[in-house]
UniProtKB/TrEMBL annotation, chain A:
This is Cytochrome c oxidase subunit 5B, mitochondrial-like. The gene is LOC114243727. InterPro entries: Cyt_c_oxidase_su5b, Cyt_c_oxidase_su5b_sf. GO terms for molecular function: metal ion binding. GO terms for biological process: mitochondrial electron transport, cytochrome c to oxygen. PROSITE patterns: COX5B_2. One of its GO terms (cellular component) is mitochondrial envelope. It holds the Pfam family COX5B. Zn(2+) binds at residues 75, 77, 97, 99. It comes from the Eukaryota. It comes from Bombyx mandarina. Keywords: Metal-binding, Zinc.
Automatic annotation (TrEMBL), chain B:
This is Cytochrome c oxidase subunit 3. Component of the cytochrome c oxidase, the last enzyme in the mitochondrial electron transport chain which drives oxidative phosphorylation. The respiratory chain contains 3 multisubunit complexes succinate dehydrogenase (complex II, CII), ubiquinol-cytochrome c oxidoreductase (cytochrome b-c1 complex, complex III, CIII) and cytochrome c oxidase (complex IV, CIV), that cooperate to transfer electrons derived from NADH and succinate to molecular oxygen, creating an electrochemical gradient over the inner membrane that drives transmembrane transport and the ATP synthase. GO terms for cellular component: mitochondrion; organelle envelope; organelle membrane; respiratory chain complex IV. The keyword Manganese does not apply. InterPro entries: Cyt_c/ubiquinol_Oxase_su3 (IPR024791), Cyt_c_oxase_su3_dom (IPR033945), Cyt_c_oxidase-like_su3 (IPR000298), Cyt_c_oxidase_su3-like_sf (IPR035973), Cyt_c_oxidase_su3_a-hlx (IPR013833). The keyword Metal-binding does not apply.
Length: 111, 262
């Protein structure tokens, strides 16, 4: 009991104070995996931020990561456009947007 | 379609609490009518019990989801923050309505109350006695709750515990003093528009102080059980925001109703 009460005791000047639990120790589940990914340098562990389009040809389509067999995506065709073109992308079925850019689903492991 | 939940959002599990909450407030309101018309407490007490049990279990489940299941990712945290901000804004509007009623009645007093404010034969509280002490208490608990937050962020468990305890103590002290004022008041809620506006505004403020104290007490218990870390302690932040809101409302109350309205 005495040893437990001394858990995380630190010295600040001449006073002793108890510390809170280490954040990484306290975290669990998906929140912990998200933080570990951020600490490892990955600022988008769930792959939900927008991606800048690459060449987007049929031979080199824009690869969209997804851990599901289908994903809803949208294409901002040109900078001056005020609307987005939405489409479903399915595993193994590359698709072309009306503006000419190709997209393909790329499987990734879930976090 | 194969579904893996590779997203940071929290899709909550099935829960009975929204339904029991609805039943609880319905029972509360119907019970209030039964109390007013038939002078019978039974239904309203049942309504209170159901509502309080729902609130306890619902918030307990939220703490479990965040602390023990790790469901509160960054976006979920942001959503909770927005939720608390919008709730406090709705409460601000709730108090605006009582201040509107007060200023409507006091800026142009009716002939029926003597064309004066305070109305004739109303002896208001001296703003420089207990109300001033209450103001000092509230400003002090704003300081102690900020101390608690900084201690949390600086990873200091002991000082967080001490400052949080002090904050709760000051909250209780305010409630006790207001209760004494209410008992000793020379006027009642039935005493003209003065009594109505005074007790509606200060009464609802008092309820908010009690709720804030309870919220901080919950944070204190969670802190003792090591739920908070120096980076993630939104429950405490929400309580601190609510506490500051209650403090600001009192300052408006003190200046307009106690001081200017004297």
């Amino acid at each position: 009991m005495l040893l437990k009460s001394l858990y995380g005791v630190s010295r600040f000047g001449v006073r002793f104070y108890r510390k809170l639990i280490d954040p990484l120790d306290l975290l669990t589940g998906i929140e912990k995996r998200e933080l570990l990914a951020h600490l490892a340098g990955d600022c988008d562990p769930f792959r939900i931020l927008s991606i800048k389009k690459g060449p987007g040809t049929r031979e080199r389509p824009n690869l969209i990561p997804s851990s599901n067999s289908s994903r809803l995506i949208c294409c901002h065709c040109t900078e001056s456009d005020n609307h987005l073109k939405f489409m479903w992308l399915h595993q193994g079925d590359p698709k072309r947007c009306g503006c000419g850019y190709w997209f393909e689903l790329c499987p990734i492991a879930p976090l | 379609m194969k579904m893996n939940n590779n997203h940071p959002f929290h899709l909550v599990d099935y829960s009975p609490w929204p339904f029991t909450g609805a039943i609880g407030v319905l029972t509360l309101m119907t019970g209030m009518i039964k109390w007013f018309h038939n002078f019978n407490f039974n239904l309203i007490i049942m309504g209170y019990i159901i509502t309080l049990l729902t609130a306890y279990q619902w918030w307990r489940d939220i703490s479990r989801e965040g602390t023990y299941q790790g469901k509160h990712t960054i976006v979920v945290n942001k959503g909770l923050r927005w939720g608390m901000i919008l709730f406090i804004i709705s409460e601000i509007f709730f108090f605006i309505s009582f201040f509107w009623a007060f200023f409507h009645s006091s800026l142009s007093p009716n002939i029926e109350i003597g064309s004066m404010w305070p109305p004739s034969s109303i002896t208001p509280f001296n703003p420089f006695q207990i109300p001033l002490l209450n103001t000092i208490i509230l400003i002090s608990y704003g300081v102690t709750v900020t101390w608690a937050h900084h201690s949390l962020m600086e990873n200091n468990f002991s000082q967080t515990k001490q400052s949080l305890f002090l904050t709760i103590l000051l909250g209780f002290y305010f409630t006790i003093l207001q209760a004494y004022e209410y008992i000793e008041a020379p006027f009642t809620i039935a005493d003209s528009i003065y009594g109505s506006t005074f007790f509606m505004a200060t009464g609802f403020h008092g309820i908010h102080v009690m709720i804030g104290t309870l919220f901080l007490l919950t944070c204190y218990i969670r802190h003792l059980n090591n739920h908070f870390s120096k980076n993630h302690h939104f429950g405490f932040e929400a309580a601190a925001w609510y506490w500051h809101f209650v403090d600001v409302v009192w300052l408006f109350l003190y200046i307009s109703i106690y001081w200017w309205g004297n």
